[in-house]
Design goal:
five-stranded mixed sheet, 788 residues, Jelly Rolls, 7 domains, Barwin-like endoglucanases, ATP-binding
């Protein structure tokens, strides 16, 4: 059954003592723990000596050719190294010598005591070690367990023996499962089996029984067929085809019958619970819920400046319906349930209400509000015989000054008495004075007043017989079911099914599950996966680093990974990236605006700008205030303090552009013959005379010393294109304070930026529009930020 053709089959077996359950680390599925000596023996068994091997390992080996010896030696060294590696996965055949039972298993670790093996509870039951006899006393002999210096367990006196063989298994392709009970119907077989087998099992053995938990249920399956090997297969790195067949015809008929009954009670049917779905604020939702079921609603949007009030009313006061709410966000990923909710009302009243203030910290970063309506299941009676409970869910928003949220209830003692009226001392009812004698005679014989809640009951009514008051708080009710529910949820201890936390009651357990439970699901802000908030190697939830950072233990550990800052290219830890970017933001807001070329056709800055946004201001560049590229054709080395020679050179350049043109087909300069034709300012064949040209350039020459006045020189195509794109980006944001500008600023895409910064962005990014917008977002302040 060797699965590796390059390595011969590994042969190793031994007999070990089975550790008792209390001295075995927690194991799941088919995992075992072996002693470190077993690993040494396995590596020794995997080593094959090739020194005396007569067969050459290379096809070109020639014993008479000394140049082939080096390749042969290297091939033999590689063979030894390859054969010293253990097979993956490493699987074992376990045999109980007392009853002959055989089960295959995978290795968890090599940390058991000398000559001892640790088994999971599944393997104990499969091998017959968890039967009638206790592992503490077998054949009248007691177990002694010692802890050595390394923390591993050693058995001082062997009791139960187990034979362990190493045996490689083929990758499985098919398995047949037979349910041991009728009526199994999970929502998703594929996801349930994949997750359970991947997390707990390395192998599957024919004839073993799998106990697969699914919420409050446990599905038991018999493995009754495997391929390609009928005895056992491995589940690592393989795609497995699964068939689920009934155990017999009677079970198949019973399963079909239950599925039909379940389909009648499916959500959305007349006999089932309501389907739930999305709701909005200021709406009334009427529905029904079966006992033990939940109806889930989602509120996606609401006014976060107002308070929210939830009111749940049962149509029949005898029906017990509960209300649970959880803000859905990165810190809360589970639907609200009895043992896992942030806000809840499961009192005995028929009218439930929950009020959320908009300042509640639980609503911070909430993406939605998850609301669940639960029909309480009476454990005394058969819940399947109950019809669905009818209810009305009302969601409304209230402001801080609203006083209509809590209706005022008028007590009987507050009713004013008339001149001929009197109040009964037994029932507090107002009756006429002339009939008070008859009323009291009847009332004292038939009615009784509860001294605690001041409610009046008939002495012979079942409500009075079942009326109760909690001695620990002010709760009360009129039936045994309400008392059982109150005692169970409020005064009975509860244990977390994930981390074994002991809670004082169900509300305490719900608080634990939504705050400190290691298995609470979160959406990690670094790996962006839905994971438990604390892993086995993560720091404690109450450590100072976790508390001060505001991160969960998983996020604190996962955030220790490093990445490169996209702005400065420094290596920064993920959890420090937010603080690091704030420093860049301060630099962005404090930067000085770059100077741009005075030439209206040029898309360059005067001084240049760094990739990170650093403006290299170097003072005056030249007497024209243009960039070096535009000033290059006008540069001479002569001394010209008055600028007269420079003015003449500028005049000649303008005349050359207007009379001859630059000759570039992309030119859009209105002071160029080619550019004027491209802009439609001059017809084809039409020429400008020298006199007309001088009159056009005269105002420009007169304002040449005014650095704010533009100049019009022809430039290269890339620079001209960047100038056009910069004008487009600057126009996208609109003017500061405009509606369009505000809307674009929320997007953070090139919105509301000064024209000089747009020129700089495209110069840095080589004219790439999208990269330029990203550079603006990272390196340039907006107009609104500059105005502050």
């Amino acid at each position: 059954m060797n699965t590796n053709l390059d390595r011969p089959s590994l042969n190793w077996s031994t007999q070990l003592d089975v550790l008792p359950p209390e001295s075995t680390p927690p194991l799941r599925g088919d995992k075992i723990i072996l002693p470190p000596s077993a690993l040494e023996q396995l590596l020794s068994a995997a080593t094959v000596t090739v020194a005396n091997t007569t067969q050459p390992q290379t096809s070109t080996f020639d014993p008479y050719n000394p140049f082939s010896f080096a390749a042969e030696r290297q091939a033999r060294e590689q063979l030894v190294e390859r054969q010293q590696q253990l097979p993956h996965p490493l699987t074992f055949r376990l045999v109980n010598p007392e009853n002959g039972r055989i089960v295959f298993a995978g290795i968890r670790e090599f940390s058991a005591g000398n000559n001892a093996v640790g088994l999971s509870s599944f393997l104990r039951q499969s091998l017959g070690f968890g039967g009638e006899k206790s592992l503490d006393h077998i054949n009248g002999t007691s177990i002694g367990v010692e802890v050595n210096g390394s923390g591993t367990h050693e058995v001082t006196e062997a009791l139960a023996r187990l034979t362990v063989h190493v045996q490689e298994l083929p990758k499985g392709t098919y398995v047949k499962l037979r349910p041991l009970e009728a009526g199994y119907d999970p929502e998703d077989w594929k996801a349930l089996l994949e997750q359970y087998l991947r997390d707990n099992y390395t192998t599957l053995t024919n004839g073993e029984v799998l106990n697969i938990p699914a919420g409050n249920e446990t599905f038991r399956f018999l493995v009754d067929g495997l391929k390609p090997n009928e005895e056992a297969i491995t589940l690592v790195d393989t795609d497995l085809e699964v068939d689920i067949e009934p155990l017999n015809e009677e079970q198949a008929r019973e399963t079909l019958k239950r599925l039909v009954e379940k389909s009648k009670r499916a959500p959305g049917t007349s006999e089932g619970s309501s389907a739930g779905g999305k709701i909005t604020i200021n709406t009334n939702e009427t529905g029904q819920v079966r006992p033990g079921d939940y109806v889930d609603y989602t509120i996606g949007q609401w006014d976060r400046t107002q308070n929210i009030e939830f009111e749940l009313t049962a149509f029949d006061p005898e029906n017990d319906i509960d209300l649970f709410i959880t803000p859905h966000g990165p810190k809360h990923r589970s639907r609200p349930r009895e043992t896992e909710h942030v806000f809840g009302d499961f009192s005995n009243r028929a009218f439930k209400t929950i009020k959320l203030r908009h300042t509640n910290s639980e609503l911070d970063n909430a993406e939605a509000l998850w609301v669940s309506v639960r029909g309480y299941e009476d454990q005394v009676e058969d819940a399947q015989a109950h019809v669905p409970f009818q209810y009305n869910l009302r969601v409304s928003s209230t402001d801080e000054t609203s006083t209509a949220a809590t209706p005022h209830t008028t007590m009987a003692d507050d009713i004013p008495l008339g001149l001929d009226e009197e109040r009964c001392t037994n029932c507090n009812q107002v009756v006429p004075k002339r009939t008070m004698f008859l009323h009291q005679n009847f009332c004292l014989r038939n009615n009784i007043l509860c001294p605690h809640c001041q409610n009046v009951f008939q002495k012979s009514s079942p409500e009075w017989k079942n009326h109760w008051h909690c001695p620990h708080d002010d709760s009360y009710g009129n039936n045994p079911s309400s008392r059982t529910k109150h005692d169970t949820l409020t005064h009975a201890p509860a244990i977390c099914s994930f981390c074994d936390h002991n809670a004082a009651n169900t509300p305490d357990l719900a608080h634990h599950r939504t705050t400190t439970c290691p298995w609470k699901l979160i959406l990690c802000q670094f790996c962006h996966l839905q994971v438990p908030q604390k892993g086995p190697d993560d720091p404690s939830a109450d450590s100072a680093e976790v508390i001060l950072s505001g991160l969960t233990p998983h996020e604190l550990s996962d955030g220790a990974r490093t990445t490169e800052c996209h702005i400065c290219a420094k290596i920064v830890r993920l959890r420090d990236m937010t603080t690091h970017l704030k420093h860049h933001d301060l630099q962005r807001l404090s930067r000085q605006k770059p100077r741009i070329c005075r030439n209206v056709n040029c898309g360059r800055t005067l001084d240049g700008i760094g990739k990170g946004g650093e403006v290299r201001v170097q003072g005056s560049r030249n007497d024209l205030g243009v960039c070096d590229v535009c000033f290059g054709p006008l540069y001479v080395s002569m001394y010209d303090p008055d600028g007269k020679a420079l003015k003449r050179r500028v005049e000649r350049k303008y005349l050359t552009q207007l009379l001859t043109g630059c000759g570039q087909p992309w030119c859009r300069n209105e002071f160029c013959k080619i550019g004027r034709k491209n802009l439609g300012l001059q017809q084809e064949g039409q020429a400008i005379t020298s006199k007309e040209a001088l009159s056009m350039i005269r105002p420009t020459l007169d304002s040449l010393k005014d650095m704010r006045a533009p100049v019009h020189f022809c430039t290269d195509e890339a620079s001209q294109k960047r100038r056009t794109l910069a004008e487009m980006i600057a126009a996208e944001g609109g003017e500061p304070g405009s509606v369009k500008g505000k809307g674009r600023e929320e997007d953070g895409i090139g919105s509301g930026y000064d024209f000089a910064w747009c020129i700089a962005a495209l110069e840095v990014e080589g004219g790439d529009l999208d990269k330029g917008r990203g550079w603006l977002k990272d390196s340039a302040p907006t107009r609104a930020e500059t105005a502050r």
